[in-house]
């Protein structure tokens, strides 16, 4: 009989050995320290057969920005089983337990990085982020008009507050990026000794952009840009000029940005090698509380009925009346639909994609996943914030 338990400190070694075996991790002090940090910060759940831990996952209690609003988010990671325990339903029970725990803690949305999109759709998750990767050749550089102000290589310990302030200012109005806390900066983003930092300051010596990068590849011949965050166009150009000064020393440069990001204005030729890829998945954990916190546009008086189906989190399966009157937004649960209200019906995956703005209401209605009229889909889209979801963290 399989039993699901919240793991304690005494069970960390069992959890670590499971992850080393299942993910083929190298059993090193660095790997163990990183996992211990996540274990101590997050919530770990395990499936046991007798006294043996056979499957596990970790929930990281995080927060994300959503256009000025802060939402509680549960990051699911390290979902794994011993090979002989797979296919017996343990992961489903762990996921159901994690969702229940997240709801009880007031978490309204959850992200994860899938090994299989199809697999996690069974638990209500859907792809909600895309990324655009640029492979830049050394010869692509050379057309920048370098600002007179300089970019300096800096140490994290010396400039951490400036770096964090730039990130916060850039991301607070975005859709979906993690609102990094001290633990995330120190234990995840800056824990690797390979990462390097450069900082741009304007004429008044105010920090306006930073570059987080590392050298990778078999011969350290790849310049990998982990983050380039700029508050002004001048800062952006200056940071790319700094990258360009390395052109003679590297075979290629790799940069991954938002799905809608374009770099053609920065290079002398417009034929940069680039590709799009699906990224992390998301799902709404608690629809009612999510809707109560969502930053709807207050542009005109409108009323909608939102019907939700959710095979994993049944508490979401309700009919919600959303009313907007002037600056007031009200939400209520109703038993019967009102014939005078615009009605939309979808499963939790579709609602997640819509509210994350990964897909627009009209596109979802066209493909059939959002059940409503074309006119209602258009009307509903007008009350949603505009933007493209972006995410710069991985777990």
- Uncertain spans: none
What's the CATH superfamily of the largest domain, by name? Gcn5-related N-acetyltransferase (GNAT)
Strand runs, count: 19
Q: Which structural category do the helix and sheet elements fall into?
A: alpha+beta
- The CATH topology of the largest domain comes to Aminopeptidase
How does CATH name the architecture of the largest domain?
A: 3-Layer(aba) Sandwich
End-to-end separation: 30 Å
Binned strand content: 25-35%
Overall mean confidence score, pLDDT: 94
Count of the domains: 3
Protein name: Putative acetyltransferase
GO biological process, one term: aminoglycoside antibiotic catabolic process
Organism: Alkalibacterium olivapovliticus
GO molecular function, one term: aminoglycoside N-acetyltransferase activity
Task: Give a description of the structure.
The chain has 395 residues and is α+β, with helices and mostly antiparallel strands. It has three domains: 2-107, Gcn5-related N-acetyltransferase (GNAT) (Aminopeptidase, 3-Layer(aba) Sandwich), CATH 3.40.630.30; 132-277, Aminopeptidase; 286-346 and 360-381, SCP2 sterol-binding domain (Nonspecific Lipid-transfer Protein, Chain A, 2-Layer Sandwich), CATH 3.30.1050.10. 28% of the residues lie in helices and 33% in strands. The chain is built from eleven helices and 19 strands. The strands form three sheets. Strands 1, 2, 3, 4, 5, 6, 9 and 15 form an eight-stranded mixed sheet that branches. The model has no long low-confidence stretch (mean pLDDT 94).
């Amino acid at each position: 009989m399989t039993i699901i338990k919240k793991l304690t400190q005494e069970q960390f070694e069992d959890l670590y050995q499971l992850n080393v075996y299942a993910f083929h991790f190298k059993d090193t002090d660095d790997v163990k320290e990183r996992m211990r940090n996540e274990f101590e910060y997050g919530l770990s759940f395990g499936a046991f057969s007798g006294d043996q831990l056979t499957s596990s996952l970790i929930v990281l209690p995080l927060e994300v920005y959503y256009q000025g609003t802060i939402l509680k988010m549960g990051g699911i990671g390290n979902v794994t089983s011993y090979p002989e325990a797979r296919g017996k339903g343990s992961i489903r029970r762990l996921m159901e337990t994690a969702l229940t725990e997240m709801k009880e803690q007031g978490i309204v949305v959850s992200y994860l990085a899938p090994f299989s999109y199809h697999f996690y759709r069974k638990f209500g998750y859907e792809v909600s982020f895309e990324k655009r990767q640029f492979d830049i050749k050394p010869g692509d550089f050379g057309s920048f008009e370098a600002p007179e102000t300089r970019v300096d290589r800096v140490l994290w310990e010396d400039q951490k507050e400036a770096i964090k302030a730039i990130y916060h200012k850039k991301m607070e109005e975005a859709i979906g990026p993690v609102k990094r806390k001290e633990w995330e900066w120190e234990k995840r983003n800056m824990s690797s000794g390979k990462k390097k930092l450069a900082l741009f300051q304007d004429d008044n010596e105010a920090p306006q952009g930073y570059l987080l990068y590392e050298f990778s590849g078999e011969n350290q011949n790849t310049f990998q840009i982990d983050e380039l965050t700029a508050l002004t166009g001048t800062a952006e150009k200056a940071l790319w000029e700094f990258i360009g000064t390395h052109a003679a020393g590297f075979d290629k440069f790799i940069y991954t940005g938002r799905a809608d990001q374009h770099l053609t204005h920065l290079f002398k030729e417009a034929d940069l090698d680039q590709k799009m890829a699906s990224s992390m998945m998301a799902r709404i954990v608690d629809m009612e509380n999510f809707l109560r916190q969502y930053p709807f546009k207050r542009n005109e008086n409108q009323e909608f009925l939102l019907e939700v189906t959710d095979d994993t989190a049944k508490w979401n399966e309700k009919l919600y009346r959303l009313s907007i009157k002037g600056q007031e937004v009200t939400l209520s649960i109703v038993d019967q639909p009102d014939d005078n209200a615009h009605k939309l019906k979808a499963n939790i995956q579709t609602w997640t994609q819509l509210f994350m703005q990964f897909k627009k209401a009209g596109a979802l209605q066209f493909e059939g996943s959002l059940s409503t009229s074309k006119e209602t889909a258009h009307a509903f889209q007008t009350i949603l914030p505009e933007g493209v979801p972006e995410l710069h963290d991985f777990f």
